[in-house]
## 1
Amino acid sequence: MIRLEGVTKSYNKKNVLINANLHAKEGEITLLTGKSGSGKSILLNIISGIQVYDSGNYFVNKVKLDVYDDQYMSQFRNAKIGYIVQDYALIEEYSVLENILLPSMYNKKFEKKDIQDKAILLAKDFGLFDIIYKKVKHISGGQKQRTAIARSLILDPAIILADEPTTNLDEENFLLIIDLFESLKKAKKLIIIATHDDRIKSIANKIYRIDDTILEQES
Ligand SMILES: Nc1ncnc2c1ncn2[C@@H]1O[C@H](COP(=O)(O)OP(=O)(O)OP(=O)(O)O)[C@@H](O)[C@H]1O
Ligand SMILES: [Mg+2]
């Protein structure tokens, strides 16, 4: 369970969020909507611990997180969160496989052999098997998006944050990702998706909308 209470955040002296409250649960998909520039990515960054708020509280399973402690938050992120960021943040000079494996470089929870096998399975699941040794700089936008999604799952995170995960995908790959989110939901993951893509609404349990600094629950 994630709970944000009274979160206020400004960026370059401009208010992005005022007194935002959000509640997301395991086994549910929570959507964040709102027009471009409304603060969806900033909110996901706050939940992942990459950015801090100016004031407010953040609870995970009723434990209040010390968001101002960088080391604590990076440990939290590495242990609990898979984050598909909006621009993918892949390393262009690395192969698809190396990119999928990146989070495991900082986390020794799994044996090297097991993690390699898991990366290859994920590559297969996402139709990337034929290109696992290709450098990311030589693959398409949709392939990059799927590589970023595979990478976010490599450490089997309890919480999955996805920023516009379907924008670059054709119908076939869109359906693949919808199926993936459905199965993550069944596996009791906590999923938060920021999106403009109305097609995702059909699998959402809860929809929040950011409208001019106000975060409201829409349904
Ligand atoms: N690196 C940055 N430098 C300056 N301003 C920023 C930066 N990142 C975000 N902002 C500002 O913060 C506000 C919220 O941005 P954010 O990226 O969260 O919006 P968004 O809802 O994710 O938009 P989009 O749908 O286009 O991805 C915007 O007004 C934006 O201009
Ligand atoms: Mg964004």
## 2
Amino acid sequence: MTQKSLKCLITGGAGFIGSHLAEELVNRGHRVTIIDNLYNGKQTYHDDLFQKIPFLKISVLDHEMIDLLVANHDVIFHLGAILGVKSTMDRSVELMETNIDGTRNVLRAALKYDKKVVFASTSEVYGKATPPFAEDGDRLYGATNKLRWCYAVSKTLEETLCLGYGLKGLKVSVVRYFNIYGPRAKEGPYAGVIPRFISAALKGDPIQVYGDGTQTRCFTYISDAVEATIRAIDDECNNEIINIGSQSEMNILNLAKLVRKLSHSNSPILYVPFEDVYPLGFEEIPNRYPDVSKMSSLLSFKPKVSFIEGLSETIEWFKENI
Ligand SMILES: NC(=O)c1ccc[n+]([C@@H]2O[C@H](COP(=O)([O-])OP(=O)(O)OC[C@H]3O[C@@H](n4cnc5c(N)ncnc54)[C@H](O)[C@@H]3O)[C@@H](O)[C@H]2O)c1
């Protein structure tokens, strides 16, 4: 399926992962349409790309437009979503409605027109379960009034919708991303930790480590995430949920030190209590570590970019773009 030229629709295509995915699909000779309501997209990052491929400012909540667009494409990469722990706490209703209703619009239309969907889910769905996280492992969330869990709950529900539509005959694959980073990752106080640290290091600001810095994550470079996402088009992946991640685990304090070193920065490292950053109801996930055996067997894929290499590339990009 990946061999012939496909008509690909990317929702959330002006975002970090979606824009890289769009570029790679175009490089491989596929035809791509991007839709995004620019809730969190940066059109200025992609001016070149948007001259080459159609970009439509449309919300995934516009079910009539979604229906029309899905009908005219072969594969839909559904990445358009509201994400991030801070968003989940500040805008939980908007997040739940956008994510769940948007996904339902995409899935309904794709079933109607017999199109393939690759749905972007997240390692957040594992919640407080004990790593390593395997796709068929249990999930564990905190109390409902801890709004921090609403992003995980929305993606869990969306995954369940995907599998339900799969039972009705939809060709759908779910990719669960583990902390993707690279050029164009969003910076800002509540953004992913890597862009936040790089931005502070390059500006000479304190690098703020939330909590004691012993929490660990496995970071995955964007080109690896994109490659795995494209492989998930394959029919063998229908009705499958697949972790997309690396297994190089790093604690956040060591990450801060590494970013500072690679950026040649003198920024101090500052510990900030979680209570000072997040409102009541926040819970941290201490360790996040994927089981990647399914990614390796089903997608025949292993991440290729080393952490040092990926981090250095990302720092170079931020030097030009902050
Ligand atoms: N970056 C990661 O590490 C990571 C990890 C796990 C899962 N994901 C998932 O991958 C997908 C892409 O994430 P990203 O990191 O590129 O984030 P991003 O915020 O850069 O991209 C999401 C895009 O969706 C768009 N969007 C929001 N609401 C929309 C709507 N109503 N209609 C159309 N577009 C809308 C935003 O404007 C944004 O451009 C998301 O579904 C996210 O949940 C990302």
